[in-house]
Amino acid sequence: MKIAIQHREGGFTERWIAYCQKNSLDFLLVDCFKTDILNILRKEKVTHLMWHLNHASSKDLMVYPYVMNAAKNMCIKTFPNFNTRWHFDDKIAQKYLFESIGAPLVKSDVFYEREDALSFLNTSQLPLVAKLKRGAGSTNVKLIKSKAEGEEYIKRLFSEGIVSTAKALGNFDQKLRVAKQIKDPVKLIKKTIGFFKKNRRERTLANVEKGYVYFQEFMPNNEFDIRIIVVGEIAFGIRRFNKENDFRASGSGKIDFEVAKIDLETVKIAFDVTQKIGGQCLAFDFVYNLNKEPKIVEVCFGFSMKAYDACPGYWKKDLSFVEGTFIPQEFMMENFLNE
């Protein structure tokens, strides 16, 4: 057995490396953007390939299907596997996925013709939630409150489109909160300059989203959402409260870790859906409908690693709770290597 890890600053990578070192596993770091990556994997006799995909990287989103699908054809096991990754950072793909298995998804509609989208708008109860297929942390999510606003949005999606990578100062409150955590002023300046350079590059490379409109039913009276993450045989979760004067919770930084306040029905649904999908690691966002039934908003393979280190424990599949600190990335490794 030999593990290849796509190296990435931050994310799961460092903990995967630490796990391999602690357990004396044979591994190497690779660059999946190299033109000869498949020859490298073959030469090194790699049996397992791991990549913490970055939703904010246009390069990751473009290249990972090529490399990971090709690696699978070489009988190399991949993390994330195909069932976990094919819908990554693609809300439209997730709509079709959830509908195919009968998962409790918030009512979602996609239209590929302007006239169809306008007809739906004219017969729908407002507000509607409009989303681009790409985006995390509430990026590219808009509440359509009037017919005129909806018509303008539809017109734009069927004309010049919208760049999927937000502007540098988009979600400013979230970026300000992150910046305040950096106490070293020199480091803060370097990070800020680096971020603006990276954002400019990403906006240049990012797709212009057009040719479709994706709507979800607005779920009122939700002061928070519930994020449940399933990693193999365990699940853990948090409640995320909405941003001030906003219906969106993702990226707010207002996190509640109290286990007793998390609806076990969301944990059960997350386990069931993950099993039906055949996923290795999936993070589900839930809100409630007017009947207080939990509905899935979307799902993602990855998650902000350090935000969940404060979780006081995890659930097993029988919904029993195991108290104590844990490292999800070690569960990822153990499950993956034992597949």
The run of helices and strands is EHEHEHEHHEHEEHEHHEEEEEHEEEEH
Q: Report mean pLDDT, rounded to a whole number.
A: 90
Count of distinct strands: 17
Span between N and C termini?
A: 13 Å
CATH architecture of the largest domain: 2-Layer Sandwich
CATH topology of the largest domain, which one? Dna Ligase, domain 1
Our Rg estimate from Cα atoms comes to 20 Å
Overall form? globular
Approximately how much beta-strand content do the residues carry? 15-25%
Number of helices: 11
Q: Kindly give the count of domains.
A: 3
* Secondary structure: helix percent: 25-40%
Organism: Aequorivita antarctica
Pfam family, one: RimK
Protein name: ATP-grasp fold RimK-type domain-containing protein
Domain ATP-grasp fold RimK-type: 209-299
Can you characterise this structure?
Helices cover 36% and strands 22% of the residues. The chain has 3 domains: 3-79, Rossmann fold; 91-95 and 104-217, ATP-grasp fold, A domain (Dna Ligase, domain 1, 2-Layer Sandwich), CATH 3.30.1490; 224-337, ATP-grasp fold, B domain (D-amino Acid Aminotransferase, Chain A, domain 1, 2-Layer Sandwich). Strands 11, 12, 13, 14, 15, 16 and 17 form a 7-stranded antiparallel sheet that branches. With 339 residues, the chain is of the alpha+beta class. It is globular and about 60 Å long.
Quick overview of this protein structure:
It is built from 11 helices and 17 strands. The chain has 3 domains: 3-79, Rossmann fold, CATH 3.40.50; 91-95 and 104-217, Dna Ligase, domain 1, CATH 3.30.1490; 224-337, D-amino Acid Aminotransferase, Chain A, domain 1, CATH 3.30.470.20. It has helices at 13-22, 37-43, 58-73, 82-85, 91-101, 114-123, 147-157, 172-180, 185-205, 264-277, 328-337; strands spanning 3-6, 27-30, 48-50, 77-79, 108-111, 128-131, 141-144, 162-163, 208-209, 213-217, 224-231, 234-241, 255-256, 281-288, 294-300, 313-316, 321-323.
